[in-house]
Amino acid sequence: MQGVMARRAVSSAARNSAIAQRCFSRSQVAQKEAPLQKDDVSVPKMPPFDYSPPPYNGPSAGEILAKRKDYLSPSLFHLYKKPLNVVDGKMQYLFDDEGRRYVDAFGGIATVCCGHCHPDVVDAIIKQTKRLQHSTVLYLNSAIADFAEALASKLPGDLKVVFFTNSGTEANELAIMMARLYTGCQDIISLRNGYHGNATGTMGATGQSIWKFNVVQSGVHHALNPDPYRGVFGSDGEKYAKDVQDLIDFGTSGNVAAFISETIQGVGGIVELAPGYLPAVYGSIKNAGGISIADEVQSGFARTGSHFWGFESQGVVPDIVTMAKSIGNGIPLGAVVTTPKIAVVLTRRSYFNTFGGNPVCTAAGLAVLRVIEKENLQENALLVGSYLKDRLMAMKNKYEIIGDVRGRGLMLGIELVTDRQEKTPAKAETLHVMDQMKELGVLIGKGGFYGNVFRITPPLCFTKEDADFLVDSMDYVMSRM
Predict the structure, then answer these.
(1) CA distances from 264 to 13, 108, 286, 472 (A)
(2) What is the mean pLDDT of residues 54-69?
(3) Measuring CA to CA, which of 107, 224, 440, 472 is 20 to 30 A from 129?
(4) What element of type H or E holds 230?
């Protein structure tokens, strides 16, 4: 067995000892942690829910794993020591093959916004599927036009021309191409630690080596990440923005095509950009002849609570907005929304997408917008998200291993470190806590360059009772480390 992880003496011996009790290598997990006792009265209890899934008669987890190994890409991976076989979902809950219920605090990677199998969304999908499953945008159909109109009404300024895609990666690819066509320039500026997709162009814009293959990725410059927790300038957004201007001055001809960024980095670990950053950067990009692209694939559709779109929190209006995930509550759907002036560049040649604007997908998208409004999900994201963040901040004061709590609404991150001063990533501990929380019935995500950040992005119907169960479960696990 490995010993307790070595740590630099940066404070009193008592503090070191307290932290060391919670810091261990993977091989020490079993030694440090007693088995969960399900009959223990101190184990948090899941909120009641009036739904029981039908009996499951499908293949076992082992059989599915065997088929994945034989027939699916070897690049696929799964979470947890014992993979979870999910067979049913209802609102903010998932059910495994044994009928056990879980609080879904990951939401299919910030994708399920209305709730699993929301009846209004399901009904819209079924009705459209029964009438017309697919045709082509070469024919007229009301589903795509109605959704485009409703979507444009949610965006500010002259952002009213919609191009539908099948994913966020495809949306960002299209946005980057449009920016290059519109400006006549090739240089794109994005952020270190950002993630925009896994196709050729978006991989180039992505700023993490773990998501980049060794293929040609040209014409992209990565600026300093305006990370208030780990960044060199703390929360001073304007100082980070100066680096973008330096990239323009010293790394390009002085003219650029675009700047692309998330407002809250999802894959990067729920990193909210430093205040004042986007207004300063958008100004520099505009002066260099470029346009600004807001990647709202994860932060859009009311998830931040305070605003419908993440970029609104910084008081800016981009030239192009890309979106996916929550747009369809799980249906494969993405979109690029821009101005008429920029949109016209795609008429220079033929641009076509066979499935972009599919009637079933766009019917689902329209239902999502209606559910968000009807059920006040943006207000709920703000109310429950603020409550949850406050409880997590209290947890930070209790456990030294929690280095940072951040995010907005129901897009929250918790970064674990073995040393608060050095901000040493607690990778093994993160995996351990995730696995133990799953055993208690809570599913959360993981991200960040070092793999030490919990990503909490549940359906927007999440309740305070769900939030309490999540925090109490995390508290229970950490108290036993």
Answers:
(1) 37, 17, 22, 26
(2) 94
(3) 107
(4) none
The phi-psi region of residue 166 (left if phi > 0; otherwise alpha if psi is between -120 and 50; otherwise beta) is alpha
Name the token pair of 368.
């999502």
Please work out, in degrees rounded to the nearest 5, the angle formed at the alpha carbon of residue 386 by the alpha carbons of 384 and 390: 115
CATH of 13-104+378-479, one of 3.40.50.2020, 3.40.50.300, 3.30.70.2200, 3.90.1150.10: 3.90.1150.10
Among residues 334, 470, 304, the alpha carbon closest in space to that of 395 is found at: 470
Query: Both tokens of residue 359?
Result: 């009637």
Report yes or no: 92 and 380 within 8 Å, Cβ to Cβ.
Answer: no
Q: Whole-angstrom Cα distance, residue 22 to residue 315?
A: 41
Burial profile 327-359: b = 16 or more Cβ within 10 angstroms, e = fewer: bbbbbbbbbbbbbeebbebbeeeeeeeebbbbb
Provide CATH 3.40.640.10 ranges for the chain.
Answer: 119-374
d(CA 240, CA 279): 12
Q: Where are the beta strands (DSSP E) in 97-179?
A: 101-104, 161-165
What digits encode the pLDDT tens for the residues 246-271?
999 999 999 999 999 999 999 999 99
Count CA atoms within 13 Å of residue 361 on its CB side.
Answer: 24
- For residues 383-412, average pLDDT: 98
Architecture label for domain 119-374: 3-Layer(aba) Sandwich (3.40)
Q: Which helix (H) or strand (E) holds 189?
A: strand 188-191
- Only one residue has tokens 């927007």, namely 460
Considering the entire predicted model, what is its pTM? Answer: 0.91
